[in-house]
Amino acid sequence: MKKVITYGTFDLFHYGHRRLLERAKALGDHLIVGVTSEDFDKARGKINVQQSLMERIEVLKATGLADEIIVEEYEGQKIDDILRYNVDIFAIGSDWVGKFDYLKQYCEVVYLERTEGVSSSELRAEKRELRLGIVGDELPFLSKFERESHYVNGLSISGLCHLRRHESIPDNLLQLPLLTSNFEEIVDASDAIFLNSTPQQHYNQIKYALMHGRHVLCEPPVSMRRDEWDELMRLAEEKKCLLMDALRTAYAMAYRRLLLLVKSGVIGKVCSVDSSITVQRDTELKGDELINVRNSISTWGANALLPVFQLLGTDYQSKRIITHIENESLKYDTFSKIDFVYPEAVASIKVGKGVKTEGSLVVSGTTGYIYVPAPWWKTEYFEVRREDPSFNKRYFYQLDGEGIRYELVSFIRAVQTGRSYPYISGQVSKAMVAILEDFYNEKDLIRI
Ligand code: C2G
Known about the structure:
Blueprint: E1 3-8, H1 15-26, E2 30-36, H2 38-43, H3 53-63, E3 68-72, H4 77-84, E4 89-93, E5 108-112, H5 120-125, E6 130-136, H6 139-149, E7 155-161, H7 171-174, E8 179-180, H8 183-188, E9 192-196, H9 199-211, E10 215-218, H10 226-238, E11 243-245, H11 253-263, E12 270-279, H12 296-312, E13 318-327, E14 332-342, E15 345-353, E16 361-365, E17 368-372, E18 381-385, E19 393-396, H13 404-417, H14 426-441, E20 445-447
Parallel strand pairs: 1-2, 1-4, 2-3, 4-5, 6-7, 6-9, 7-8, 9-10, 10-11, 12-15, 13-20
Antiparallel strand pairs: 12-16, 13-14, 14-15, 16-17, 17-18, 18-19
This protein binds [cytidine-5'-phosphate] glycerylphosphoric acid ester.
């Protein structure tokens, strides 16, 4: 019996896929099809796949062309499979010519002519492109954000609304179709808005965008007050628009896997979560240009709170904010520490702009702890540590684009399907707002 093997993602199964499989099958008596797993696709840069692995397998099964279906999960697996299944022929489309010649030492390699005029990428792009307008003043970050958007199908950046005039604008942002300091203009030119403005500006901007039927992707905290958060979420629902938190850590692979590991009990019951994010500041706090300056809590608070609320929930019994305010009129906190008491756990965050400490995350449990080295919020690596170090385990996950491209993929998908799979739940989003509100109202707050 002659065995043939082929591989693919087979997203949105089309005529080109069918023809490839038919010809591969005709090369022998038994066709094995390797379907790529979601993780493997992400690792090889295919981030826009629309269907889940199970959906893609079901469609493939229904064609009746595959005698056997396997899942491709890792680099180099093809060699293992060819040896394991005693394969005679490896077949793949001509877009891969030369790339799989290294398999010739294990079996025959056949490149089959690719079918012209049809592809999954075109099918994905057929849905109308979402025009996303970006609003904010952290230009180096927005420049990265714009570059990351190129990895995402179905999205184009419509322009930049930038309020601080003095700074020089990076080249890729200068080339956008619209550069303005007028918020209404960017809303006009866009289907959705990404807000990297200060939390003080969010409420009015979000309200305006939602009233005009635009979706909003907003860096948390979404607003300065709980009642504003409620109002904005109600408005989003009424206008059938999406209002989603944008926090790239929440979409970073290592962080996502850490959450799942903890929730599946690898360190027993969580007793404590400690996270810090601080930066040294090199500017003095003075002058008009600093009117929009962000203090420590509004720059880093939401990010530092993310693992606390996602691991322990938002129903803490009490909290204490300890802060050092350097500039009263700006309410600029050089440093803030927040301690939380939960029924059976504690948590603590430290944020600072103008203070520097180790930016690590430690999640302590009854049978071990997880240590994420600085900068934990954009890590590729963490360790599960035990009393006996021989049981320690290290985990590595590639961090593509600091999570920005995955954040955009999930935003687009939520807009297109009307269904969101929230990486940051409404409860967590609102709890972040509550902390900011209490900070400004000096509730549960001690000054040092
Ligand atoms: N194909 C084709 N004609 C098209 C589109 C795709 O012949 N118009 C072929 C591809 O060449 C490939 C198969 O259909 O052989 C599956 O295509 P994809 O789903 O795009 O998968 P791909 O990324 O090519 O995966 O490690 C190699 C991969 O597993 C191949």
